[in-house]
Design goal:
six-stranded antiparallel β-sheet; alpha+beta; disordered N terminus; 6 helices; five-stranded antiparallel β-sheet; 13 strands
Amino acid sequence: MNKEIEVEGMGVKAQGSPYIIETRNESGYYKDKYDTLQSEAMEWKISSAHNFDNHSSAKKVTEDEPALEPGDCGSLEFRVSPQSFDSITVDCLFEMKAYTEVIVKDLNGDPVKDENGDPVTALTEITTGNTAGYIEGHILMFSGIDEYGKYTGLIDNDNVALERILEDQTYNKNESNYTTIYWYWPEHLNELTDSTKIKFAASEQSDVIAYIAKNKDKFFKNCSETSDKVLSDFTALAAGTSTDQVYNHYNLMYDNADLEIGNYISYIVLSMQVIQD
């Protein structure tokens, strides 16, 4: 997704009383020139050199120009360090924001150039239409991983917006207990429906299907089916009692959403807001 390769800094929007948000090691890379994206939440600003998990291990050796794309996965580690109390229990609210990179123009409509004669660009948040919603839907988040390397503990949303909530996280002062979240962008729809291809534990299947149905407009482009219909269809697909025609119908809409992500989204931000219980 991100066309930029270089990373020039590390930063986390983390200050807040009565706690401080910390990330392990070098989480939180971002390009200095995009440091104008402000929020009261902690933000991981994503760069292609480190992919979505902000670590060099995410870079694929086979990629000439590594960037976030379908099939990628990784993890993020953070903790909330109490400052005023010995212990704190919080809910962590995750939200993804999408940005497009545009060329800055002067009053005459001509591109503004920098000192090297290159066009000056700026980021604009995508707040209209369904494009930003597709990246929210297609990147799944989990709270654990089992002994077989399968994801567990789907981080779900309980409102109409696709804000994922990790509830009741307790942190103690002067302890280094980090929370790890795992993210995964399925490359193909069958990685959500085929028991031989899914990368989450089989016990998560019903929760994932319910999650897809509830957020159908963020998984599929131009989906006219009701949430109940999607739930029924995906339950049958997972059970192996459906048809190729049904799978192909949803697969086309899923791929079209991925295509729109690639065409219009240049950068994404994963924000985390801490809500004290």
